[in-house]
């Protein structure tokens, strides 16, 4: 799938609007997190989220996340039109509680990862990714 | 690309109990369902919405995917291998189509 | 298209508009970066400038050097490189019989490895004295030998086939011929390279000679080398052929562009390719 310049602009404007009026987008993010955690408290630490500081193109941003001892990990993109990115549950044959993926980011925003640990507790990590809008189409 | 084709990379061999990195890629448009065509009609969502990997029938990872996953979805993860066996990779898309690939690994 | 020199003030303004905030121009953006595929195949991304561009550059550099760490990494592992999806598809097409002759590429050429070296000398003057790009040779086979329909220049079939054929030459130095029968086309391409197009009155040289290494908004301007094409662009999530990139550049000057596959673009392709003679063919590169 490709985005034309016009569509990219609409996406960018959408995320700018979300930044200006954060409530609905924020609500969607909070809702996605609450659906995953069941409203439980979420601590910091014990989870590593790796993202580029600057993404040359928001269409394909490599990320990876690792949380030793986790049973499941969810990733949300707080500034996308819909925040969900993916949720992974790990089986007995998992060699590590990690995965890497390439994701779409509609603009500069926070990427948030939340892990559910074996004891039922939750931890989170969050990184800002700056998405550049290039000078050149083509 | 119109045809949907999975690719996976699995090491040929491992030692017992070793954790190995698996890489997967499938050609797929991952249409978000938020775009409109030239006539203003919404292009229906068409994404890979679930990906799983099993080793000898036991679960390694089970993922739910949203439209924020890029075109030609790439996913990497680790699996522990305790015996010679076979990985099965499965992708499910919105049309109900299922794509699978298998790859064996030998434990020396 | 009219050529016009800008006055010093206008030129300075243009340079500012290009975001010339640093002295990065001409410097190697990632001096320690080496392009090694799968830990084995070393590609030449910096080469002594060919004689005909020695007045501009000491060293010619692949566009790979101008990309971020993450984008560069995607090209260093053939599994990570999504362009290989097109190579796989190209291999299927290579073996598929089509047309009135019920022939495949393989029927005549055998293994695709016999195509090694082809990409490195494209575009090349054919037996009738016309300058042809790889795409022209592929379509000539399709229509004349296979009795099949020609592929569109930017069709999936064509992009997959050029990806497959280019990969066979990966690691070979770009070495297009610019003298003899190619000379007139090369002069035409050179003329185009230095012609200012569009409402913004920009030539290829304004960005890729005068300002390479600087930022144009958030894009890092390269020397505009084409040794990496066809390239998998993250923006398009697909293969972008050289002429599609040319068209995008001219469109960005707010100019009327030439068509993909036009004699003008094939001549420009020859000239731009010749500037990178000595750089490795990267087969299917990955760019932003």
Task: Please characterize this protein's 3D structure.
The complex is a heterotrimer of chains A (138), B (108) and C (288). Chain A has 138 residues and is α+β, with helices and mostly antiparallel strands. Chain A is built from two helices and nine strands; from the N terminus they run ααβββββββββ. In chain A, helix 1 packs across helix 2. About 4% of the residues of chain A have low confidence. Chain B has no helices and eight strands. Chain B has a five-stranded mixed β-sheet with strand order 2-8-7-4-5, with no helix packed on it. Chain B has a three-stranded antiparallel β-sheet with strand order 1-3-6, with no helix packed on it. In chain C, 34% of the residues lie in helices and 9% in strands. The longest helix of chain C is centred in the middle third of the chain and has 13 residues. The two termini of chain C are 30 Å apart. The N terminus of chain C is likely disordered. Chains in contact: A-B, A-C, B-C. At the A-C interface, strand 3 of A face helix 2, strand 7 and helix 9 of C.
Give keywords.
heterotrimer; A: 138 residues; alpha+beta; Immunoglobulin-like; six-stranded mixed sheet; three-stranded antiparallel sheet; globular; C: 288 residues; Cytochrome Bc1 Complex, Chain D, domain 2; three-stranded mixed sheet; 11 strands; 9% strand; disordered N terminus
Give a brief outline of the structure:
Chain A is an alpha+beta fold and 138 residues long.
Q: Could you describe the largest sheet of chain A, including whether it forms a barrel?
A: 6 strands, mixed
pLDDT < 50 runs, ≥5 residues of chain A:
16-21
Percent range for helical residues of chain A?
Answer: 10-25%
Q: Class of the largest domain in chain C, according to the CATH hierarchy?
A: Mainly Alpha
- Point out poorly predicted stretches of chain C: 1-25
Summarize the helix and strand pattern of chain A as letters: HHEEEEEEEEE
Give the CA-CA distance, first to last residue of chain C.
30 Å
What does the main sheet of chain C amount to? 3 strands, mixed
Look at the helices and sheets of chain C and give the structural class. alpha+beta
- According to CATH, the homologous superfamily of chain A is SoxY domain
For the record, the CATH class of chain A is Mainly Beta
* Form type of chain C: globular
Oligomer: heterotrimer
Number of helical runs of chain C? 10
Report the C-alpha radius of gyration of chain C, rounded: 19 Å
What is the total domain count of chain C? 2
CATH topology of the largest domain in chain C: Cytochrome Bc1 Complex, Chain D, domain 2
